Amino acid sequence: MGISSFRGPAIEAENLSRSYRLRSGWLRPQTKVIEAVKDVSFSIEQGELFGLLGPNGAGKTTTIKMLNTLLLPSGGTARVLGHDVAKDPVAVRQRIGYVFGGDKGLYDRLSALDNLRYFAELYGVEPAGQGARIQELLELVGLSGRERERVEGYSRGMRQRLHIARGLLHMPEVLFLDEPSIGVDPVAARALREMIQGLSARGITVLLTTHYMAEADQLCDRIAVIAGGRIRVVDTPDALKASVAAETVIEVEVVGATGGHTAALRALPGLREMDVEEGEGQVSVLTMRAKLGVDLYSAALSILSDVHIVRVSGRESSLEDAYVAIVGRG
């Protein structure tokens, strides 16, 4: 893999912003400005595996597209290995790879080998070294021996591994992974996580977006949470979990809870927040967080005394708890 001679951060974003103008109406057209990303600042060290987390529409993909030169910033600056994304986009593109989740970006009627040959030509990989490079990547992503099969017969996990191989063809120093495990089954997702950890161990800087909190917790050295286009916090997974560790967290699975029950639970003294996850039928999972020392158990069970309680359990605070609290505060 390529090793940079640049000694600064791999990625630097300073007050990065992106806005869109939307026109609506015909007889009386109106223009509305949408701020997708607002004054985003963070830096990523070389070799770091950095997570960018946030709800849908928070600005994650817009931020990544500005960093990899697919979108021009409306304001602020961003540099990749010292190269400005707006002023020197060619130098940035030579040093980065971009892998996104989903089925696009590959040719189904071609084999994996032919896909990689095609993209190697597009990326300007030297012809003399293409064969060895492709074989190295096929082994890295676990597709060696199946490279002559058409991609249309590949599973979602195999496609994602091929996406990663494609993104690594030109030996990038920085790799953007935009929800790489979306829609992938648990076994394939575990293989992808192991592969991503291996990339970081090779010295590649990785910027990862994901909606899977356990994945971010396992993989990332640091995490930035973005909501409403703004960065809310940047810290390690352990530090984020510690920020909500001084809480009582209980989960109650019930059958037949009504809006009256949840309203009464939300009104409990000391309750910080409550999430309601609807299951099949009338099953609901209520996750409640309160100040440490607050007796949620007896108060919650009293309110739910006239419905069927399947289980009640307490647990330690997780990265998901920290994420929900941060986004909720925003």
From TrEMBL:
Gene Ontology cellular-component annotations: plasma membrane
Primary location group: membrane
Keyword match Amino-acid biosynthesis: no
Annotated GO biological process: response to antibiotic
SMART domains: AAA (SM00382)
Localization of this protein: Cell membrane
UniProt domain ABC transporter: residue ranges: 11-253
Keyword annotations: Antibiotic resistance, ATP-binding, Nucleotide-binding, Transport
Entry keyword ATP-binding: yes
Entry superkingdom: Bacteria
Gene Ontology terms for molecular function: ATP binding; ATP hydrolysis activity
Membrane topology type: Peripheral membrane protein
Pfam family for this entry, one: ABC_tran
Name of this chain's protein: Daunorubicin resistance ABC transporter ATPase subunit
Organism name: Streptosporangium roseum (strain ATCC 12428 / DSM 43021 / JCM 3005 / KCTC 9067 / NCIMB 10171 / NRRL 2505 / NI 9100)
